[in-house]
Amino acid sequence: MKKTDLEKLNGLKIRGRMKNSDTPDRFAKASSGAHADAAVNPLVAKLLKKGLAGKQS
Length: 57
Hints:
Blueprint: H1 3-20, H2 42-56
């Protein structure tokens, strides 16, 4: 076989392994928004409130 044929088969093997593997938990349903309740800088909170209030008007 030629070197290019071997490389193509190796790539197909890797591609098949990637398709059959599961999505890591950090990207999938196991991520429950652990940072959703993280503390927000007071200045950032104030600016967000001001920005959101301006859009509602």
